[in-house]
Amino acid sequence: MARGRKTTAITVACPICGKEYNKNGIGSHKVACQRRADTERAAQAQYAAVQQATAGGSRAQGLVIPPPPSSPGLRGAPSSAGSSPGPDNVDNELVIEQDRGGATHYRGPSVEDLPEPEEVHPAPRDEDQAAPPSPARASPSPSTNTLRLPTFRAPTGPDLPSNDLRVDDFLTISHPHAATPPIHKHFDDFTRTPPPISPTKLNNTPWHPFKSREDFEFAEFVLKAALNQGEVDALLALIDRVAGGRSALSFRSYGDLKDAWDAASRVAPAFMKHKVTVPYKKEDRTYTMYCRPLFEWSLGLLKDPLLASKFVWHAQRLYKYNGRTWERFVDEPNTADGWWKVEDALPEDGSPLMYALYADKTRLSSFGTQKGYPIIARITNLPSDIRNGEEYGGGQVVGFLPIVEDENEEGKKGFTTYKRIIWHESFWILLETIAKYGKTGYRFTCGDDVTRILYPIVLILVADYEEQAMMSLNRGPKGLSPCPVCLVPQDKQMVLGLQPEHPYRDAEPIQALLDNADLTKRQLDEALKPMGLRPVENVFWKLPHCNVYRALSWDRLHAYHGGLFSDHLFEEFQQIVKAMGREAVIEINQQFDDIPSWPNLNHFDAVVSVNFTDGQKYEDISKSIVHASHSVFRKAKSKQGYMLLKCLRRYIVLDILAGLEVHMESTLRLYANELVKYSQTIKEYSDAFPGKNWNFPKCHTHQHIVDDVMEKGVTKNFNTKPFEKMHGIIKGIYQDQTNFKDVEAQIARIEHQVSVARFMRSRINALDEAVNKRLTPKEPKADSFQFAHVHLGAPTQGTTTISDIETTHATEPDGRAPQWVKIQSNDVITEMRYIRVDYESRVTWQMYTDHLRCNPSFHGAPRYDHVMYKINDTKIGFAQLCFVFVCTFMDTRQPLALVHCLDVVQARQTVDQDLGLCRVRRSRSNQNSYRFIPVTSIIRGALITEDALKSNDFFVIDSVDGDMFVRL
Asked: Which residues, 6 or more positions from 530, have their beta carbon under 8 angstroms from its beta carbon?
């Protein structure tokens, strides 16, 4: 407030927006509010006019859209409008024009006349900012009373099975283009494993063009070890001396190795150098992009006989029989609706070749002065274990985008738009051939000797929010519509429904605005502002059968673990705990440390004052944060802390459901219902403690998870985690194998060698496997400690007796066996300290394994794990392992465990319901507290921690994985 101005508590209503404002500030607010309303009213009118003009050809909200009309598309980018329909192979060769220096040149639009820097719209933090009205909707808002899943209804038709139906049977209905009748399989007969590779398809010299296997393996070792020229020469000299001139290696110097790599590099398409020239302020600026031909790389995978049988080509709808009806489930992309819609749009003999593309900047140097901008591709026709793996057939770096930086121009609107033009012009170099053959088709004989007409299609775009804003040309979190895929207003992002409350973006009206020659650049910018878009043509508009706004996918890593949790919920948690004082900090850190260790779960001894850069650590903290802190908040009677824990519990449930590897109609409905509960809980917290604004993109984007799963399968299909793992390879190359000059060229060359080595290694391993199987057929080994689904290991030296156990545990409550176990005190037993339990997941119906310990000194500390075990056919229990052994009596070997039992508390307290706590309790009766159980009654391991407020009470951490959550 200005010096000398008198304060007043009087408020008046703004006649424009209707909100209450301080009387002294209403004048300036009315001017700003009127200006904003006039601008947005004009923009909405323009947007509505464009929609009306294009209503006849408006695209559906679904994933599939018709090919773009013949137009220049990207300014300055070559057009495929002249392509003829039908397969167009151009002699099966990809032709790329280059200059003598090996660089391809593209010239883009000028941005010299862009308007001045725009007005910044910060995220609203209090009632002093008027809410921006939503732009005209592209489609009516859906009803929020029920979640619509029309394609998840039970199938009907005369070809469906009606006899011999059993619970858990599977039904597969393929797309009509597959010309395959419905397939009914019983649970034990159902498999999706591809047929084995024929030995006739294997190459007997898979290391070619290396002269020998030894040459290739030496080159592979040098590559992995990142040896430089001097080290290679020294190593070769040493090998020659040790071998006395009789080494199997043909290499004598680093030059020989380099020549071998040059020859081998031709087995796969290498990176090529391209130039992108776009003028800025009447001055041409040229940037370099390295990329390998994306489509040609794909053909290399397709013609490989080792991978050919693993490709899937048709959409399928999978169902599981629950005893009453068939319930549909989705996992892989081809089981979801998007793939089905793509096939609907293709010719009957067309085969979709589906891509998942990822791009993101990463720091290569420790201080971030050198950056890389990799593009990584995966073929979604391959199953997820191959596609998301690190071996041949997994993700592949296919390009490096130019990084556009200028400290003198950074922050200016023109330069911000310029960077997006460069991004989309550069990406077009990678996608140009995809766009062509996605329209015409490409006839190709695959490695399974089947000739197909391929239609390359970008099905999934994987990125964090910042990169999605680049892909969608969204203005980011400060725009009026910050979501990359829908038109949610900035101040409505925390309001979530069973399904999206706001319409999805539609490319056609936006293209019409950009093509409207009657609009000035300023008018165009103002027309796009309510939609939160930049005035740049989107490269993905040129791709047939790709709607960029539906291909963009929610990212669990950055939206949840490294976003909503780490930057907001956990940050709020840390602030509350620190405000409570040092004792609260110490107690919560101690309770985190007291949580038992669990496989693949990071263990923490301090979290309150620690920040991480690893999303996995934040995910692991979230799993136990409620259990480790609720007692502190309750003792301190912290209303804010308790309400935040309720928000955290809602988030944890959403995260578990979002991460399920199989989704059914029931789990999708459960997620949608929990999303509404989360939104309501956050609103209650925000109303009670209004210090934080919860209207930000990562509080909204999970609104689209259900649609994303329906369209593209489960979230692991579009999680950035497997893509970001590949950043480590690129950073390693930069730090260990470059001279820090002309970095992109060196990284591209060495990364290509890595991909060639991976290709050759896969073939050598396949040959070795076939030869070993032929020479020494595997016979199952007899395991004397395998009992049904449980294997016991780590036996102690020698044997003992039941009397010895009674003596050892004499200071504990009575451990006499129940009547159904009759063991004599002199029966000989063998103590076991390791238990491997195989169990069928309730989520994926596949087998998983828990590795459990019952050891007084495991890595120097006692380790007695907890288990879930079967009491009878309808009841389960929990217990802590005390002693595991195999007893031989009456000529029969029996595996038994002495356990400390924990009974499930059925009458749940209010706090347990609010925070989702599963409470178990030690029996107060010593007779019932300890007992012997058959080891074969163990279902799986359990992570259980003690309640700090109540002795003998414990909590089962149900968030440890999806299976445990579903069971409880």
From this structure: 40, 43, 44, 47, 132, 133, 134, 135, 480, 481
Q: How far apart are CA 925 and CA 223, in angstroms?
A: 64
The Cα-based distances of 165 to 184, 320, 324, 665 in angstroms read 9, 11, 10, 21
- Using alpha carbons, select from 140, 118, 137, 96 the residue that is nearest to residue 39: 118
Strand positions, DSSP E, 14-89: 20-22
- Tell how strand 875-889 and strand 11-13 pair up: unpaired
SS3 853: strand
- Residue 332 identity: E
Euclidean distance between CA atoms 212 and 256, whole angstroms: 13
The secondary structure of the chain in percent helix, strand, coil, rounded to multiples of 5, reads 40, 20, 40
Nearest Cα to Cα of residue 916 among 698, 622, 638, 706: 622
For the chain (968 residues), the mean pLDDT of every run of 10, in chain order, is: 48 71 68 59 50 41 35 35 43 37 43 36 35 36 68 86 90 95 93 79 89 93 92 91 81 93 91 96 95 96 93 96 94 97 96 98 87 96 94 95 94 94 97 96 95 97 97 95 96 94 93 91 92 95 96 97 96 96 94 93 91 90 96 93 97 97 96 97 96 95 97 97 94 92 92 94 90 71 85 81 62 44 68 96 95 93 95 92 87 88 90 95 74 94 95 94 95
Rounded to whole angstroms, how far apart are CA atoms 847 and 87?
A: 44
**DSSP code, position 711:** H
Q: What is the DSSP string of 776-832?
A: S---PPP-TTEETTEEEEEEPSS-EEHHHHHHHTTTSSP-PPPTT----TT-EEEEE
* Cα 65 to Cα 262: distance, rounded to the nearest angstrom: 43
Closest CA to 721 of 802, 606, 615: 615
What are the Cα distances from residue 709, in Å, to 174, 556, 672, 718? 19, 12, 12, 10
Cα separations in angstroms, 856 against 792, 882, 883: 16, 9, 10
Provide the residue count of the chain: 968
β-pair type (170-174, 316-321) = antiparallel
pLDDT digits (tens, 9 = 90+) for 8-59: 556 677 777 666 666 666 776 676 666 556 545 544 554 554 455 444 433 3
Rounded Cα distance between 937 and 867, Å, is 10
The DSSP secondary structure of 478-509, one letter per residue, reads TSSS--SSB---GGGTT---SS-SSPBP-HHH
Cα 640 to the center of its chain, rounded Å: 32
CB 484 within 8 A of CB 383: no
Residue 828 forms beta bridges with which residues?
801
Q: Which of 507, 506, 476, 471 is nearest to 118 (CA)?
A: 476
d(CA 457, CA 545) in angstroms, rounded, equals: 7
Question: Of 554, 497, 502, 843, which Cα lies nearest the Cα of 673?
Answer: 497
DSSP annotation of 403 reads P
Determine the Cα angle at 929 with ends 923 and 935, to 5°: 130
- Model confidence over 537-595: pLDDT tens digits? 999 999 999 999 999 999 999 999 999 999 999 999 999 999 999 999 999 999 999 99
Residue keyed to tokens 């968030």: 959
Q: How far apart are CA 279 and CA 305, in angstroms?
A: 47
Torsion of CA 801, 926, 861, 948, to 10 degrees: 170
Beta bridge partners of 881: 899
Count the Cβ atoms, other than its own, within 10 Å of residue 818.
9
Using alpha carbons only, how large is the chain's radius of gyration in Å? Answer: 32
**Residue 552 gets which letter from DSSP?**
B
